[in-house]
Amino acid sequence: MLDNLLIGFQNILIPSTLLIMIGGVILGIIFGAMPGLSATMAVALCLPLSYSLDIIPGVALLIALYIGGISGGLISAILLKIPGTPSSVATTFDGAPLAEKGEAGKALGVGVFFSFLGTAFSFIALVFIAPLLADFALMFGYFEYCAVAIFSLSLVASLVEGSLWKGLASAVIGFTLTMVGTAPIDGYPRFTFGIAALGAGFDILPALIGFFAVTEIFEAASSAAHPEVKGKIVDFKIKGLGFTGAEFKSQIPNMIRSTLIGIGIGILPGIGGGTSNLLAYATAKNQSKYPEKFGTGIIDGVVASETANNATIGGALIPLLSLGIPGDTTTAMLLGGLTLQGVAPGPLLFAEHGDVVYSIFVAVLVADIMMLILEFVGMRLFVRVLQVPKNILLSCVMALCAIGAFGVNNRSFDVITIFFFGLMGYAFNKVKIPTTPFILGFVLGSMVETNLRRGMMMTMGDVTPLFTKPICVVFLLLAVFSIIRATIVRVRQTKRERAGMQ
User: Fold this and answer.
1) Are the CB atoms for 465 and 472 separated by under 8 Å?
2) Residues forming a β-bridge with 189
3) Distances (CA, A) of 51 to 58, 61, 260
4) What does the pLDDT read at residue 273?
């Protein structure tokens, strides 16, 4: 392992790669800090650029965007009381009151430093857990992979907020759209309706750009007629790191607990930092000796939120690299980036592209250090970016979306694709259908179908191994359990809500 890490450092610590990563971290911070933009959108826009680079600099760029984007959300969450990303929602609960009390510097310092620690600890988990999980996954065959993908889809659908059935429907719609085009084994055309452009199906890159970036632009356009809620940018001064040694010592249990929550949530497919920061905040409040102070402006809430959402980064990369299953929507796009480079994530990735894997590990650590330095040094500059009018910013983003989509295959159909998926994402938001199950269904759909059909080819059409092999049985039972449990929880919640109304 040590030799592989040294190779990773040699691949990343090259001046050109470091410069690319610095640019990626800065852009990620800006996207994270701008309300309405996100790390997901930053990665989506830069996927075409990463494809034009060699594989290691290209993937390092995406990692830098990811880490910068997740951490950047704390800037607007604290200074504007508007979370820049879903991962920073809980940061507003105590970060904004701290800023209103004149302690914005402390809130920012705590947020940035514990963001750094959360990612650093998740890096350690990534290095030690991912190879072990990959070794276990080498025991998997086609049917086992199919069962894992089914379990992942059921877990995503059952853990979403709101309606269970909407979550399941979202995953099914995403799964169905993967069937458009020629079948993966026999090449038979499906759902093309005589349209030649649909023969190749929907390319993952334009689909992801449309579903995330273009959807956000449509959301902004639809609200243009309404007055936008704007926060007043709070001035701030940071002395040192913004907090004392005694304050840091008092937060160690909170930090460790939030790190474990972040890594654990990250490993579960399809949940991500949007859930981990809220869960860590709620846990910190429940475990605190002074829960009544939460929400009034204490650093405990900022520590919990920012440690957990950044720890989710390494956690989400573990199933992506080990099993080929993205842990959240951003890693779903990292999966697309690796696929575009001809690298298939999964257990064989460690054997066939070990240099790439450990370069990704090192890129996480290096980008984390860059994020710490750049956010402290460039804080005031990033704050000024918050004042750029959205009509100018999003117009530029829309143009980049179209250029990036066209550049993948040099076909105008991909530009139409981003608008189609953008409208679909916008419709999902309007009717409160969760988007994460959709995109995971879209990414994992081909994995389910391809592995099931390959397995059936080996068994002459017999599907019983999917229900009899031990590993398959375990994952299918877990899938059933996750759905049943989610149904029971929601039934109990409904009963409590009705009882409260009476």
Assistant:
1) yes
2) 182
3) 6, 10, 33
4) 59
Find out whether 240 and 109 touch, Cβ atoms under 8 Å: yes
In the prediction, which pLDDT does 236 show?
58
DSSP state of 196: G
Instruction: Tell me the Ramachandran region of residue 268: left when phi exceeds 0, alpha when psi lies from -120 to 50, beta otherwise.
Output: beta
pLDDT by residue (tens digit) across 312-338? 888 888 888 887 777 666 777 788 778
Largest CA distance in the chain: 71
| Short-list 89, 98, 113, 94, CA closest to 301 | 94
CB burial class (10 A; 0-12, 13-18, 19+) of residue 178? buried
**What are phi and psi for residue 183, nearest 5 degrees?**
-65, 145
- Dist. CA 64–CA 31, nearest whole Å: 12
* Secondary structure (3-state) at 268: coil
- How far apart CA 125 and CA 112 sit, in angstroms, is 20
Strands 181-182 and 189-190: antiparallel
pLDDT at 37: 67
Give yes or no for a contact between 331 and 298, defined as CB atoms under 8 angstroms apart.
no
Which three-class secondary structure state does DSSP give residue 469? coil
The whole-angstrom separation of Cα 403 and Cα 369 is 32
Residue 265 is predicted with a pLDDT of: 77
Q: Classify each residue of 56-91 as buried b or exposed e, where b means 16 or more C-beta atoms within 10 Å of its C-beta.
A: bbbbbbbbbbbbbbbbbbbbbbbbbbbbbbbbbbbb
Residue 472 has which token pair?
């398959």
- Residue 153 and residue 175 in contact, taking contact as beta carbons nearer than 8 Å: yes
CA triple 327-329-330, angle to 5 deg: 90
Contact partners, residue 60, CB within 8 Å, separation at least 6: 12, 17, 20, 21, 24, 359, 360, 363, 366, 367
3-state secondary structure of 403: helix
Token pair for residue 477? 């039972």
pLDDT reported for residue 231:
47
**Kind and range of the H or E run holding 351:** helix 347-352
Please give the distance of CA 188 from its chain centroid, rounded to a whole number: 34
Nearest to 23 by CA among 409, 367, 274, 415: 367
What three-state secondary structure class fits 308? helix
List C-alpha distances in Å: 392 to 82, 110, 320, 388.
20, 32, 35, 7
pLDDT at 182: 80
Length of the chain counted residue by residue: 502
Low-confidence ranges of the chain (pLDDT < 50): 228-231
**DSSP at 37:** B
Token pair recorded at residue 57? 């600099």
